[in-house]
Write a structure and sequence with these properties.
50% of the residues lie in helices and 14% in strands. The chain has 39 helices and 27 strands. The chain has a seven-stranded parallel beta sheet. Strands 19-20-23-24-25-26 form a six-stranded mixed beta sheet, sandwiched between helices. A five-stranded parallel beta sheet has the order 2-1-3-4-5, sandwiched between helices. Strand 25 and strand 26 form a beta hairpin. Helix 3 packs across helix 10, helix 23 runs antiparallel to helix 24 and helix 30 crosses helix 31.
Length: 957
């Protein structure tokens, strides 16, 4: 089927080929004009001709008016100047948030030619009625939230201040427009209004024939502009529609085109290019995959299959991203057979480390505090800067060392002296210089970016992308600084960042290349007026397609309806039109959505469009081959043989296993955690202990479970270390509790863990909890007394372990035993116990049938019993090291401390059979690990993947 642009060219050429230079073509987007040029050249062939004028609608309106649209920051300051003239004394910081809302609404008021005086008077009346009369709780809450956003008004004067704002709106609106116009400036809606108030004054007669093409929803001003040109000039309008939504009155995609068809269908100046996709054969695949990035991998796989089957046509294929954040995952997922790519979206600055550099630097100063005559910086922003590649390139070793020390010493705030001692590079230290205001901060950022630019220019490696970003950043920073200085405003850092972020979020680095060649990688709204044979649409989720109903406007919904302003209903219909338009001429359509229920606001729900099509298409479009394909597991990346990760133990890997894990390497011994990791998932063991992919450590601002356990263990160790090897009686424990030594030792343990501020907030509460837990342990020990402490936090137990044929292979076992003691009771032989303190939940085997072999087997086969495995492991190590087998292995369950000590084997003594069974199973684990014929595989228990730090690598869990 011929696409819309080709049909347009074919329609106009017979009468216009020789006079194209007198024609002006206007499209909804600039990109549609590029495709029009290509089609024009293709159909004219070798003929020489003067080209026509081609504009997007925004460019056309500015061209014929002679007015320019300033940047949003200039508009904000101009509006603020007018607002201050009404007698308001608010600062720009207070004005800016709701000033942005005013600008959007002023623009719509003009685009839709609303009687502004009448509208603003109605708003004033409406708001006064809302305030004076009782409202439902939900409405009242929403209203109060809005009032609170307006100038930060106090509760006592909210009503008067609120109503006065609405009363001056028309005055602000009128003066604002006049102020802009006098400077040759305007916002877009304002240009439309001025054109229609006196159109002949502004229209430039540099064309004889005007053609509008590919439009759908027109604002009131655009509709009247069309009427004016249709009446006064040789004007033609080309519409693009399909019977599917044109003939169905309930189909939201046709809301606007049905109105225009009814109004202009018999007008010879209007040309309707109407398709009927109900008659066409189409392949439509609806695919849900539980992953955002998985959508990109799936698309790459589908493209690879098309290439393999010869159905791929690069210039007839488009991948449309519902979310811009999928751009780079999609680029990385494209198969090698895609030779040419045209990215229409540009490279957004916000996706680069450059944006993080600026945002962290501003956050650094937002959260700076002064203490003991020194600047101190919040650790998260300091670490963010030290980790940024545009910072640590100057001295990555010093940055890494400083970062590690901040984490090791748990520094919540980092002072300037620390940074000067750890990082000597002056360029990096310049980021931490004090700034008094946003002007100095801007200068600081520009100086640093200039140093970075010079570094790249002087280095041997070309970095054109980084240099271009720096150039664009510096240009926009200086432009913004000039604007702020021009208006003489003094801003807080917060408002400065809001302004700068607005600039940076819109900043994109265009990709170089031929825009009309190759696979088209596009944003959704860039597809207007364009058609492709193969269409992939990603993120077809509710809340994304279409967007939610959130409307940032001070004009109430009822007044918007009454005055003909667009509401979410109209916006949804526009979105629906563009969605269904993509399918009019396509032959193969792939609708891909994220089906993961944990995807935040998306919630794993497919778009309403998918539900509509599944309901309507079978009856309306019988030639559609619709296939719904849920993808329940992550798909393979391009080039992968299988979706699961299996690592064969080749010679290189076996050499690595032998060198790193066998006893001949004195740097490694097997802890119970390492063995439990292997039992739960061999692949996780591979990542952690062979590849050595360590989990990222972080500064703990609050006393969390990990540090809480460390502090508790150390406190008990300090309490009992003075009485080690002595018989501890109940009276001695009473003395310890009475003398209040627990708080003293607890404070020391906190200091050793670099927790220095525990006198306020949550940390103070956690400290009291630890104190209470330690006292509860002493209370339980009082009941067990007399006993003798034989070891505390012992790390000396490192024992050899032999396995394999003739036990010719040997590893080392090690562990830190919380407590080894002997219970003395009634003069009997003391009972040796291995004791462990556990802050988390514990579960022990409750097996009552079977013997020691089955009982011990539970601890190897059931990951949830890891606490019992660890206790048994420690007991086995003590037996090997001392040749004396502990009779009991117990756990203090700190979460349920009132239950007392929980013993393995239902409190019965451990026997030689238990130790033998443990040794045999442990030998089996090592024989499997060192067997070259058994590959390293992923666990089949997906519960183990839920909190695994490597789940992003595996794409599981």
């Amino acid at each position: 089927m011929q696409n819309f642009i080709d049909q347009l060219v074919k329609s106009i050429l017979p009468n216009t080929a020789t006079g194209l230079k007198d024609h002006c073509f206007v499209f909804p987007t600039k990109r549609a004009g590029l495709f029009f040029k290509r089609s024009l050249m293709a159909q004219l062939g070798e003929k020489a001709y003067w080209g026509p004028q081609i504009y997007s609608i925004a460019e056309f309106v500015q061209h014929i008016s002679g007015k320019s649209v300033p940047d949003p920051i200039t508009l904000s300051f101009e509006l603020f100047q007018v607002y201050r003239e009404t007698g308001e004394t608010s600062s720009f910081d207070a004005f800016y948030p709701w000033g942005q809302m005013l600008l959007r609404d002023f623009d719509e008021v003009d685009r839709y030619l609303v009687d502004a005086r009448n509208l603003f008077q109605h708003i004033t009346d409406f708001k006064e009625i809302e305030e004076r009369f009782a409202l439902e709780e939900e409405q009242l809450s929403a209203l109060k939230n809005f009032w609170g956003a307006v100038n930060g008004a106090r509760k006592t004067d909210t009503r008067e201040h609120f109503l006065r704002i609405w009363q001056v709106l028309f005055e602000v609106y009128s003066k604002f427009r006049a102020r802009l116009w006098s400077q040759g400036l305007a916002y877009e809606g304002m240009i439309y209004r001025h054109l229609l108030e006196n159109p002949k004054q502004y229209v430039s007669a540099d064309f004889k024939t005007l053609i509008f093409a590919g439009f759908n929803a027109l604002s009131k001003s655009e509709e009247m502009l069309f009427d004016f040109f249709l009446k006064e000039y040789d004007t033609q309008v080309y519409w693009d529609a399909d019977r599917y939504y044109l003939d169905q009155k309930v189909q939201e995609a046709g809301l606007f085109v049905r109105q225009y068809y009814k109004k202009w269908k018999d007008d010879k100046q209007h040309h309707w290019i109407i398709t009927d996709m109900a008659k066409d054969a189409k392949q439509l695949k609806i695919m849900g995959i539980p992953s955002r990035t998985g959508q990109c991998r799936l698309t790459g796989q589908l493209l690879e299959e098309m290439i393999a089957t010869g159905t791929y046509e690069e210039e007839e294929t488009a991948v449309i991203l519902g979310e811009e954040s999928l751009l780079f995952p999609m680029l990385h997922s494209l198969p090698g057979g895609v030779e040419t790519i045209n990215v229409t979206m540009g490279f957004p600055l916000r996706e680069s480390p450059m944006f993080n550099l600026v945002s962290h630097l501003i956050s650094l100063h937002q959260n700076r505090r002064r203490k003991e005559k020194q600047d101190q910086y919040y650790h998260r922003t300091v670490l963010g800067l030290l980790n940024n590649p545009y910072v640590n390139l100057f001295d990555w070793k010093a940055c890494r060392a400083a970062r590690d020390k901040i984490i090791a010493e748990n520094l919540i705030y980092v002072d300037r002296a620390f940074l000067e001692a750890e990082v000597k590079e002056k360029t990096i230290l310049s980021l931490f210089e004090s700034t008094k205001n946003h002007h100095e901060l801007t200068d600081q950022i520009i100086r640093y970016l200039s140093s970075l630019f010079n570094h790249y220019k002087e280095s041997s490696r070309e970095r054109p992308v980084e240099c271009e970003f720096i150039f664009q950043l510096v240009k926009n920073l200086r432009r913004m600084q000039d604007i702020i200085k021009k208006y003489g405003s003094s801003l807080t850092i917060d408002t400065y960042w809001n302004l700068l972020r607005e600039v940076l979020l819109s900043l994109k680095l265009p990709f170089s290349g031929e825009p009309l060649r190759g696979l088209q990688l596009m944003g959704f709204l860039e597809t207007r007026s364009l058609d492709f044979k193969n269409v992939f649409i990603l993120s077809v989720n509710e809340g994304i397609m279409p967007r939610g109903n959130k409307q940032n406007s001070y004009i109430p919904f009822s007044l918007r309806k009454a005055f003909g302003l667009p509401t979410h209903t109209e916006r949804d219909s526009i979105f629906a039109y563009h969605f269904y338009r993509l399918m009019q001429r396509a032959e193969n359509v792939f609708l891909i959505y994220d089906s993961a229920e944990s995807s935040g606001s998306i919630g794993g729900e497919s778009s309403r469009y998918i539900k509509q099509m599944l309901e309507e298409m079978p009856g309306f479009c019988p030639n559609f081959d619709i296939e719904q394909i849920p993808v329940s597991i992550p798909v393979k990346s391009s080039g992968e043989e299988d979706v699961s990760i299996t690592i064969e133990k080749d010679k290189a890997l076996m050499a690595q296993i032998h060198s790193k894990l066998l006893r001949n390497d004195d740097t490694y011994s097997f802890s119970p955690s390492a063995i439990l990791t292997y039992l739960s998932c061999p692949l996780k063991f591979y990542f952690k202990y062979l590849v050595r992919l360590s989990e990222r450590d972080e500064v703990e601002e609050e006393l969390g479970a990990r540090t809480l356990g460390t502090v508790l263990h150390r406190t008990i160790e300090l309490i009992y270390q003075d009485v080690q090897d002595q018989v501890v009686t109940g009276e001695r424990i009473d003395e310890i509790r009475k003398n209040k030594v627990v708080p003293v030792h607890l404070e020391r343990a906190l200091q050793e863990s670099y927790f220095k501020d525990t006198e306020t907030g949550k940390n103070h509460l956690m400290k009291k909890i630890v104190e209470r837990l330690v006292d509860k342990i002493l209370e339980i020990d009082r009941k067990e007394a007399p006993f003798q402490i034989k070891g505390l936090e012992e790390e000396k137990y490192t024992v050899p372990f032999s396995f394999g044929k003739d036990k010719q292979m040997e590893v080392r076992l090690k562990g830190s035993i919380d407590r080894l003691d002997e219970i003395h009771s009634n003069g009997d032989i003391p009972t040796l116990r291995v004791m462990d303190y556990k802050t988390g939940a514990i579960e022990l085997s409750k097996r009552k049938k079977g013997g020691p072999v089955e009982y011990i087997g539970d601890y190897f086969d059931k990951p949830k019993l890891k606490s019992g495995f660890q206790a048994m492991f420690y007991a086995y190590m003590v037996k090997q090291a001392t040749k004396r087998a502990p009779a009991k292995a117990g756990i203090y369950p700190l979460k349920k401390i009132n239950q007392g000590v929980q013993y393995l084997n239902q409190g019965n003594d451990l026997t030689d059979l238990h130790y033998e069974a443990f040794e045999q199973r442990l030998q089996g684990v090592f024989e499997e690990l060192f067997d070259p014929l058994l590959p390293i595989v992923q666990t089949e228990d997906l519960k183990q993947c839920q909190y695994c730090p490597y789940r992003d690598i595996c794409q599981r869990g």
